[in-house]
Task: inverse folding
């Protein structure tokens, strides 16, 4: 059965790909969970339009990101978190928390997927973070302080 992926599906493909899957897998798992549509000619046309729209939005998003990356270069974002006496944070800082703090402190909007963070920040101190997207790259510092 030919299907169109509406989401990225592990071991199957990426969003908007057209794939051949077994009927049982499609009917019992993928379609009920809203992961795929049956690949009819009408559905393929609608998905092509949607794909172009999403790509256009992504391009606009990246243009905005390039402008915002220039504003991020070299700044320091201060974050206060609860930590033990050794300086280990009780809750790690993830991309989403960093994006909220960046927006709050600098009014720059960055998509969390563009922040290169291998693992959550779990230590008090200064951490250098890289933002990469749209062919541009910037480094900024996150200063994590212990809450009193």
Result:
């Amino acid at each position: 059965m030919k299907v169109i992926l509406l989401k990225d599906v592990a071991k199957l493909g990426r969003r908007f790909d057209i794939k051949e899957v077994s009927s049982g897998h499609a009917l019992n798992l993928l379609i009920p969970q809203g992961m795929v549509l049956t690949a009819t000619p009408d559905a393929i046309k609608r998905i092509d339009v949607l794909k172009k729209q999403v790509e256009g939005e992504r391009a606009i998003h990246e243009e905005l990101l390039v402008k915002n990356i220039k504003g991020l270069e070299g700044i320091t974002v201060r974050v206060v978190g609860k930590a033990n006496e050794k300086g280990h944070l009780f809750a790690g800082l993830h991309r989403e928390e960093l994006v909220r703090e960046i927006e709050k402190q600098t009014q720059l909007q960055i998509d969390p997927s563009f922040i290169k963070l291998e693992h959550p920040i779990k230590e008090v101190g200064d951490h250098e973070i890289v933002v990469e997207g749209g062919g541009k790259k910037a480094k900024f510092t996150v200063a994590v302080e212990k809450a009193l």
Observations:
- The chain has two domains: 2-60, 68-146.
- The domain at 2-60 is CATH 3.40.5.10 (Ribosomal Protein L9; domain 1).
